[in-house]
Write a structure and sequence with these properties.
mainly alpha, two-stranded antiparallel sheet, 15 helices, ABC_transp_permease, transmembrane, LivM-like, cell membrane, ABC_transptr_urea_perm_UrtC
């Protein structure tokens, strides 16, 4: 009953989860169970790269929840992603202990270099994994709740809301660049050693992080799917399509928008937390407004309001970025901009929304041609 209500007749959701499972198992097996000189071997760097793509897919999914189903175009979700990453990075820094360059058992290397005498109060507790994981969700969630409460209560919508979300992430960018903030300044947090006592550089740990990213993506997708198909989700869609009419019907529109916005921020924070141990660094550059804008492009390319499209768009665009920045690095931004313009003008429903539409057109045209071929000819009049 639950599965039927969740998936219904949507084969795309089942295909997405099945493909995710197959890829996760194959990548793990081909990395750990095949020799390095085998043609089937998946190198460890590629495992980390694919894990990064999955983290981006979770971020895109969080944006699609608020943009595709509530109509909130957020240009600041990169801030929630970065805050979750910093929370994980703080935990990983506390695990280094005396193995750092300066050998201090408590203070991270950058604090010793800057002559800090004691650990700031907001670093306390990050030596505990459970506390750090709570902060991964709590810090982005609180920021989103406070920001959303003030914005939605004031009925800020449309482009004005997009602008102030971008201003928020830019303000955080400037703040985290400061050395006296206690987050590593421009260099950020890096040189991580262990996670839960396991060496981050081993093949097994890389595969485990990749699998954790795939599991998180599947769970976030199922959560979003359940929300969008529930009564709560129907109200969200009503808010997106006719906010004033929904409000006049007696719904507390601000509460629904705030709940969706806060949940999406928590999802973005989880994505950032999984991202950091796989790339090995977190710095203020993750707060850059262009990162949030690029994430919106992923959703648009894949298909806004489809969930699957957001994940597919994130993976496809970032794969293209990896290829183009290696071959033609100076042309990547032009290619990304051209892709966004192309999708906006010619594929407004994105990849996932356009491909089924094209297939339906081809089937209908084929059926029409078959009907014309099978149509009997009219009898000719007999000659006199």
């Amino acid at each position: 009953m639950i599965m039927k209500r969740l998936f219904g007749s949507d084969a795309m959701a089942l295909w997405f989860l099945a493909c995710l499972l197959v890829v996760t198992v194959l990548v793990g097996v081909l990395n750990l169970a095949t020799p390095a000189d085998s043609a089937l071997h998946v190198p460890t760097y590629l495992v980390a790269l694919l894990g990064k793509y999955l983290c981006y897919a979770i971020l895109a999914l969080s944006i699609d929840l608020v943009w595709g189903y509530v109509g909130i175009l957020s240009l600041g979700h990169g801030a929630f992603f970065a805050l979750g990453g910093y929370a994980m990075g703080m935990y990983l820094m506390r695990q280094i202990g005396p193995r750092g360059v300066y050998g201090d058992p408590v203070l991270p290397d950058f604090m010793v270099f800057l002559n800090w005498k004691e650990l700031p109060w907001y670093w306390l507790g990050f030596d505990n994994f459970l506390f750090a994981m709570v902060m991964v969700a709590l810090v982005p969630g609180i920021l989103a709740f406070v920001f959303g409460y003030l914005a939605f209560r004031s009925r800020v919508t449309g482009v004005y809301l997009s602008i102030i979300t971008q201003a928020m992430t830019y303000a955080l960018l400037l703040a985290f660049f400061r050395n006296d903030m206690g987050f590593g300044g421009n260099n950020g947090l890096t040189d991580f050693k262990d996670l839960l006592g396991f060496n981050l550089q081993t093949d097994g740990m890389r595969v485990a992080l990749f699998a954790a990213s795939a599991l998180a993506l599947a769970l976030c997708y199922l959560l979003c799917l359940w929300i969008t198909r529930s009564r709560f989700g129907k109200v969200l869609i009503a808010v997106r399509d006719a906010e004033s009419r929904t409000r006049f019907m007696g719904y507390r529109v601000e509460g629904y928008k705030l709940a969706a916005f806060t949940l999406s921020a928590v999802m973005a924070g989880v994505a950032g937390a999984l991202y950091v141990p796989q790339v090995g660094i977190i710095n203020p550059g993750e707060f850059a407004p262009q990162n949030s804008i690029e994430a919106v492009v992923w959703v648009a390319v894949g298909g806004r309001g489809t969930l699957v499209g957001a994940a597919v768009g994130a993976i496809v665009v970032n794969f293209g970025k990896t290829v183009f920045t290696g071959v033609l690095p100076e042309l990547w931004l032009f290619a990304l901009g051209g892709l966004f313009v192309f999708v906006t003008l010619l594929m407004p429903k994105g990849i996932v929304g356009t491909v089924p539409q094209l297939l339906d057109m081809m089937r209908s045209r084929k059926a029409q041609n078959a009907g014309e071929t099978a149509k009997p000819e009219a009898p000719r009049p007999a000659a006199e």
